[in-house]
Write a structure and sequence with these properties.
It is a single chain. With 236 residues, the protein is of the alpha/beta class. The protein has one domain: P-loop containing nucleotide triphosphate hydrolases (Rossmann fold, 3-Layer(aba) Sandwich), CATH 3.40.50.300. A six-stranded mixed beta sheet has the order 6-7-8-3-9-10, sandwiched between helices. The structure holds adenosine-5'-triphosphate and magnesium ion. The site of magnesium ion has 4 residues, from helix 1. Adenosine-5'-triphosphate binds next to helix 1.
């Protein structure tokens, strides 16, 4: 087995003295979509925070392209090519759409116009609303702003915690199509999803987390076909 592009390996840790993650392992390859599913409180968001450096690990490692980045701050991980869209409060509602996207590029010293245009090509509605306060947008459009903002750093890994939370099925399909499009450019997608069936359908790899531990890991297709996964986690 060769080294995955990004791996959080045997991650153990939590908040204060309480461990939430128990030797949890999550990995993703370039151009691949990896999806984390599991019940509420399973530790999905905690696993994402751990991979992004927002949680001190008591055990395990995070490696990017073979390099141990476990000690790096989130900002240093952004500089290494990681971008994270958290589950909540992922945009600045009082700022315009374009200001939000510009904020995403805060670490860059080069010209960001080309990337801005790429984001507007991916999400055309954002261009038409570029001077509007992001807080005035619909739920689905706000998620587009959040994803677009993350893309402004030109990441190699895009981490999304429930990007389709609170949006209609049509908007969800739309957003998944855009995420597939992003993955096809070679970016790794690591995503937590509440809409487990739909997400596993587009997943190259799926992780079912339960109580902070890996319960099932397989291709999205194989997980969807597994009777036990279906019964326990996909509603039959
Ligand atoms: N900041 C925090 N401080 C203390 N405990 C926390 C904190 N954030 C989460 N937890 C606890 O950690 C456990 C895992 O939470 P986490 O948010 O990772 O779950 P999740 O799988 O993302 O759930 P959901 O599907 O509801 O988003 C829960 O028991 C939660 O109460
Ligand atoms: Mg969560």
């Amino acid at each position: 087995m060769s080294e995955p592009f990004l791996i959080g390996e045997a991650m153990t840790g939590g908040y204060g003295a309480v461990d939430i993650l128990h030797a949890c392992t999550i990995a993703v390859e370039p151009g691949e979509i990896a999806v984390i599913v599991g019940p509420n409180g399973a530790g999905k968001s905690t696993a994402m925070k751990a991979v992004f450096g927002m949680l001190k690990l008591r055990g395990g490692q995070v490696r990017l392209n073979g390099e141990d980045i476990s000690a790096l701050t989130p900002q240093a991980r952004v500089a290494k090519g990681m971008a994270f869209v958290p589950q909540t409060q992922n945009i600045f509602t009082s700022m315009t759409v374009e200001e939000n996207l510009e904020m995403g590029a805060f670490l860059r010293r080069d010209d960001i116009k080309g990337t801005l245009e790429q984001v507007y090509e991916l999400f055309p509605v954002l261009k038409t609303k570029r001077y509007q306060a992001a807080g005035e947008l619909s739920g689905g459009q706000r998620q587009q702003v959040a994803v677009g903002r993350a893309l402004m750093t030109q990441p190699r890994v895009l981490m999304l915690d429930e990007p389709t939370a609170g949006v209609s099925p049509i908007v969800m399909d739309e957003l998944f199509d855009r995420i597939i499009e992003v993955a096809r450019t070679g970016i790794s997608i690591l995503m937590v999803e509440q809409n487990a069936r739909q997400a596993l359908e587009i997943a190259d790899k799926g992780y079912v987390l339960v109580q902070g531990a890996n319960r099932f890991t397989d291709t999205g297709k194989a997980l969807m076909a597994d009777p036990e996964v279906r019964r326990s986690f996909l509603g039959g």
